[in-house]
Structure formats: C-alpha cells, structure tokens
Amino acid sequence: MPENQRQAGSEQVLPPGLYLVATPIGNLEDITLRALRVLRSVERIACEDTRQTQKLLNYYGIATATLSLHEHNEAGRTSELIADLLGGARIAVVSDAGIPGISDPGIFLTRAAITAEIPVSVIPGANAALTALVASGLNTERFFFLGFLPPKTTARRSDLEKVKAGINQPTTLIFYEAPHRIVETLGDIERVWGADCKVVIARELTKIHEEFLRGTVAEVREALSQRDRIRGEMVLLVEAVPQIGEDARNDIGVQQRIQQLRDTQGLDEMEALKRIARERGVSKSEVYRQLQRERAPK
Ligand code: SAM
C-alpha cells in the first residue's frame, strides 16, 4: 500500500525515498505524529542547519543522523544524496522552520529526485505564510505569496510596482520580511499602494510573544516606528485591490465610485465619501452634494 494511504500510526516499515518534512515555526508541539515517525525511521535527515534541527530531535528523543543541506552546498550534496536514494535509502529533508522549499532549501534535491524517478513524499505541517493569512482577517479566497522582497530599495519598489500592475481582483499579498527592514518596506508599500492600504503584520507566530498588528499601512508603520527595537520573525500581508486610473476614477459618478470602493475594499458610504474627496482633491461636503444630485429624481 502506498505510504500516503496507510493507517495513522502504522507500524509498517517506511518505504525508501525522499521525505520532505514540515517542522514547527516556533512552538515545538506543532509537528505531526507522522513527521515524528518519519524522522525516527529514515537513515538520515538533511537539515538546513543541523544545530537547529538537533534541538527538535532532542526534544522528541530522536537519534537519527543528520547532515547539512543549505543554499551553499545544495548542489554538491544533491549528487551524494541521490546516489544513496537510488541505493534504496530513506532520507528526510527539513529546514529550520516550516515547510522545506518555501523560501528555504530543498527544491534542488526534490527536482533531482523526481528526475531520477525516486519516490518523493511530503509530510505537511506548519508554514508561516498560511498561518499568518488565516489569522489576518484579510481575503483568503485569493492570495499571492511572494516570499522575501529584494533588500535594495530600487529593486523592492520596482517589484511592488510590477505586482500592483498585475492585480485585477482583490488579492492578499503575503511577504516574509526581516525586522530590521520592515519599516522601510512599509514605507514602500505606502508609496506604491497609498496610505490607506490595509496591512497586517503577524509577528512571532505560535511563540510566546505572538502578535498581530492590523490597520492602514500608515498606522502600522507609525506603530512600529515608535518601538525602541523591532524584533522577531514576521509575515507582512497586504490587502491589494485593483487600481483604477486617476482619469477613470474622476470620470465616473460618485455613486458608481462608492459602489466600486464598497466591492473592492469593503468601505462603507462614509469611508468611501472621504476617499473620493481625497482622490478628487475636493471637500467631503462637495462630494456629498454631488451624490445628492445624482440621487435626485430626474
Ligand atoms: N519555510 C518556512 C515556512 O514554511 O514558513 C519559511 C522560511 S523563511 C527562511 C523564514 C521567514 O518566515 C521569516 O523571516 C519570517 O518572515 C517567516 N516566519 C518564519 N517563522 C515565523 C513565525 N514564527 N512568525 C512569523 N513569521 C515567521
């Protein structure tokens, strides 16, 4: 019977092959029974950082041998591991946290195993992007995971502009970001998407100091700037809505623009009136008067 159809807790011997195993993103209890069984049963565990994985293995009393597999040795290590796998070995791959291959090493070896027709199984589990998304309160119907943005400002802004140009439906953007760059990145989001764009920062997920910061990008940036020190791992989520050109925005009636803002950004009428006033550079009462004229029976 294939490994994936076996009963939970099966005592059967683990078949040869490559096992991509998800590990916790903070809380050591966030690991599946199957992941623990696989880590115990394989001959070797290829780890992004053996010291990091050893803490997890010690916690669960797992004595399996480890070896390193990181971005600097993945190419070389792959030929060695593929030779073992072809000889019938069972090898697990783990990263420091979450699912290997997601902004982490593992994909190079996985592709080589597929090419060599070695069975590849994945043992699912914790992932920072999806954990943050479901608790963010933002749109989960349509989301776009972009990993880390480039560290250099020009490249980062250019990436954000390209993403914005491609958004034609409300979409949640998910980024990984380092604490020392988050304020700068929020500044770029504000520049590209506007100060009212909604964002969520999910910090230290599953850990003691787990925290969610929700608000407009301007509010969240301000809140973080007030802190003496910004620490911890974080996921940045952005509510991206299709942008309509300035001309098109100003050409349509106030009623129609309110409906657009309601549909795409969930704004109520008052919020939409404020937004339209800002967009058109006029006062809110002027926009309101225009709305009354549009609504007046002809
Ligand atoms: N493979 C991992 C996964 O499946 O989520 C991601 C690895 S990536 C190198 C590490 C980044 O993920 C961190 O810089 C941070 O952006 C995010 N991350 C990982 N653990 C997190 C946590 N507990 N809370 C918030 N973000 C986390």
Order of helices and strands: EHEHEHEHEHEHEHEEHEHHHH
Beta-strand residue fraction: 15-25%
Distinct helical segment count = 12
What compounds sit in this structure? Answer: S-adenosylmethionine
Main-sheet strand order equals 3-2-4-1-5
Shape: elongated
Secondary-structure-based class equals alpha/beta
| Mean pLDDT reading | 92
Number-wise, the strands total: 10
Q: Report Rg.
A: 24 Å
Helical percentage: 40-55%
CATH architecture annotation name of the largest domain: 3-Layer(aba) Sandwich
Low-confidence parts: none
Q: End-to-end span in angstroms?
A: 73 Å
How would you sum up the major sheet?
Answer: 5 strands, parallel
Kindly report the name of the CATH homologous superfamily of the largest domain.
Tetrapyrrole methylase, N-terminal domain
Write a compact overview of the structure shown.
The chain has about 300 residues and is an alpha/beta fold. About 45% of the residues lie in helices and about 20% in strands.
